[in-house]
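PROTEIN DESIGN WORKSHEET
SECTION A - STRUCTURE
LENGTH: 676
TOKENS:
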């Protein structure tokens, strides 16, 4: 059946919706969340646009008789049910907050619209407790004990109470620890319908991949992919390396001995809200001050302790790195480093005078002054004795084992991410050069495959190593998600490299660039305790699935770039066809994983703070990405995407939405999901 204009109408409406969503995120960034909600998300026109998409989509389902393909019918029906549930939530739900003090009860609450709401029962706070990570003052959980209608309930982070259709969530608490702020949520139909839609969605996604007559199974049987079977083999291997610090010592600097420093570096302290060896603080201190993990051939422990033992001498050492050439010029500093003594003149702190003279606090010079001031502040804290917080000897419960201490010191000393990105990028460019030149040797292919397997195993082990040290799945910041991204890409590369040899260089290059971003940005390499709200297995599942989908999208992007380069010559038509089929194949699990990840994240949000969708910029852009890539899954209704060149251009440009979802939102738009 030839597609008609009405058949394309849902995609036209989706395109309009994508533009509206992009405009909404920009408006939120410029004018604030309130404006975005008032002008976009809460308007009648916005909801009618979604309704129009549902109606026209249903019309296309009927016209194309999707009941003959039950998996496709179930998949599209799930989105209809989810949107209907969202409409019920929008028009029929009640949100609010309730502030209680210990021993007090109340039934009146403040709604999100600043109105007064009334609960059908009284809520009494009988006890409130803040739990901390062992040996620290960092909260690990907040717990409110409630009494409602003669029954006792416990509400904590990621643990809600449901009473007569009202869901009660832990939000915050009073600073004196004797009061609690609770979120209230009443949605009699929206949550039920939405969860039914989620369940149908997950079943239909899996069904669509396994259905005998589905597009995914059909692509798997395509003649262009008929050569070998998938290689799903993981070889055990480990490579470790350590980088020694550059020794540019002139032999005049007094420092504590290496043996003594190593011994003291094993002492346990409280830092970043957790118990760790002093070495962790030393490495962080040295890196923040000088940009290196060592200085003049001295280890980080030697540097930190030498500042304590020889403060008069070390304040004259040029160790404070100043990145800004303009600031160095203002201070009269020659070279990239300044001493603490150079930042003072006649007892006056020179940076304070410069900051007072700078009119624009957001200017590059002002930011450079602030950055340098923070470094000096660390040294001052060290002098005052407020930087180091030793763990009391009596606190046996919080103490780490000797094995954990040794493991963390090894983790601090091995620049695994730096080694890994250099390894992956070097081999990736080499493999790509061989691919483009057409130079093939069996022993080279075997060597590159082994190199990819080694990279995957080593990065997976290093990720597991950080997991062991942290005590939770490390997915809470940009550094950790980039690390997981690299592991996912390398894993996909290992799975596909034998059947599709051109995937190998792309996997190495994507992983290498992901690790390079993590290394250069230095987003948060130090291990810190999880916020209570993030301590949920749903979050780990959500992030893992999202990273796998991003990895697949990245591979399709490079595949499309390579296909467009090959398409310049007619002789490469067979290879272009293979790349086209491969991309169509990979897009199915990529889009399905992205969709599943979005809605698993929604379930986590609903469990954690009572709202499965908050129109946060990251949520919105993940939805935009899903909508954009969904076009590529409907070539039957969009004939232009049946042709290889337009299809590959679409995939190449569509990846920009993935990049913006991860990096653009983090560094430009912000929001709750920002890692910047």
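SECTION B - SEQUENCE
RESIDUE ASSIGNMENT:
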């Amino acid at each position: 059946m030839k597609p008609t204009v009405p058949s394309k109408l849902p995609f036209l409406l989706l395109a309009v919706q994508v533009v509206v969503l992009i405009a909404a995120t920009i408006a939120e960034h410029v004018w604030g969340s309130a404006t975005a909600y008032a002008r976009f998300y809460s308007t009648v026109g916005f909801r009618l646009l979604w309704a129009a998409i549902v109606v026209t989509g249903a019309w296309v389902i009927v016209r194309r008789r999707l009941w003959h393909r039950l998996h496709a019918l179930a998949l599209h029906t799930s989105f209809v049910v989810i949107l209907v549930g969202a409409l019920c939530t929008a028009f029929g739900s009640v949100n609010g907050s309730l502030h209680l003090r210990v021993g007090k009860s109340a039934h009146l609450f403040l709604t999100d619209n600043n109105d007064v709401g009334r609960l059908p029962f009284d809520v009494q706070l009988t006890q409130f407790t803040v739990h901390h990570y062992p040996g620290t003052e960092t909260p690990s959980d907040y717990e409110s004990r409630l009494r409602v209608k003669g029954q006792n309930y416990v509400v904590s982070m990621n643990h809600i109470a449901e009473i007569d259709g009202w869901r009660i969530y832990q939000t915050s608490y009073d600073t004196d620890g004797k009061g609690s702020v609770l979120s209230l949520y009443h949605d009699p139909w929206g949550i039920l319908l939405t969860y039914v839609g989620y369940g149908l969605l997950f079943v239909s996604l899996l069904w669509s991949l396994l259905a005998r007559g589905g597009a995914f199974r059909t692509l798997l049987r395509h003649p262009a992919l008929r050569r070998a079977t998938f290689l799903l083999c993981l070889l055990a291997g480990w490579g470790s390396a350590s980088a020694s610090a550059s020794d540019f010592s002139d032999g005049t600097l007094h420092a504590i001995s290496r043996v003594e420093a190593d011994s003291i570096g094993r002492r346990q302290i409280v830092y970043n809200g957790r118990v760790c060896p002093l070495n962790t603080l030393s490495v962080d201190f040295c890196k923040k001050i000088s940009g290196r993990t060592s200085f003049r051939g001295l280890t980080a422990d030697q540097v930190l302790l030498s500042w304590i033992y020889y403060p008069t001498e070390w304040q004259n050492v040029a160790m404070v790195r100043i990145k800004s050439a303009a600031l160095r010029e203002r201070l009269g500093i020659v070279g990239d480093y300044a001493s603490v003594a150079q930042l003072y003149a006649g007892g006056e702190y020179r940076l304070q005078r410069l900051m007072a003279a700078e009119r624009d606090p957001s200017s590059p010079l002002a930011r450079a002054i602030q950055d340098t001031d923070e470094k000096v502040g660390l040294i001052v804290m060290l002098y005052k004795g407020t930087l180091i917080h030793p763990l009391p000897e009596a606190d046996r419960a919080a103490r780490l084992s000797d094995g954990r201490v040794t493991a963390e010191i090894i983790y601090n000393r091995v620049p695994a991410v730096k080694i890994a990105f250099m390894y992956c990028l070097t081999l990736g460019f080499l493999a790509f050069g061989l691919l483009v030149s057409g130079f093939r040797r069996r022993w080279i292919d075997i060597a590159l495959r082994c190199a990819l397997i080694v990279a995957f195993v080593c990065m997976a082990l290093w990720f597991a190593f950080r997991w062991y040290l942290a005590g939770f799945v490390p997915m809470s910041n940009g550094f950790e998600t980039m690390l997981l991204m690299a592991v996912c890409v390398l894993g996909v590369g290992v799975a596909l490299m034998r059947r599709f040899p051109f995937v190998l260089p792309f996997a190495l290059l994507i992983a290498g660039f992901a690790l390079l971003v993590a290394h250069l940005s230095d987003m948060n390499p130090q291990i810190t305790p999880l916020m209570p709200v993030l301590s949920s297995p749903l979050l780990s599942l959500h992030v893992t699935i999202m990273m796998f989908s991003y990895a697949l999208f990245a591979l399709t992007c490079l595949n499309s770039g390579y296909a467009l380069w090959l398409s310049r010559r007619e002789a490469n038509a067979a290879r272009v066809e293979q790349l086209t089929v491969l991309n169509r194949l990979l897009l199915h699990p990529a889009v399905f994983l992205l969709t599943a990840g979005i809605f698993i994240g929604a379930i986590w949000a609903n469990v954690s703070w009572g709202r499965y969708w908050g129109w946060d910029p990251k949520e919105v852009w993940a939805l935009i990405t899903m909508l954009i890539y969904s076009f590529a899954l409907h070539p039957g209704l969009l004939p232009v995407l049946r042709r290889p060149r337009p299809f590959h251009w679409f995939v190449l440009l569509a990846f920009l939405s993935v990049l913006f979802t991860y990096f653009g939102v983090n560094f430009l738009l912000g929001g709750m999901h920002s890692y910047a």
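SECTION C - NOTES
Residues 489 and 510 are 7 Å apart (CA to CA).
Confidence is low (pLDDT under 50) at residues 227-251.
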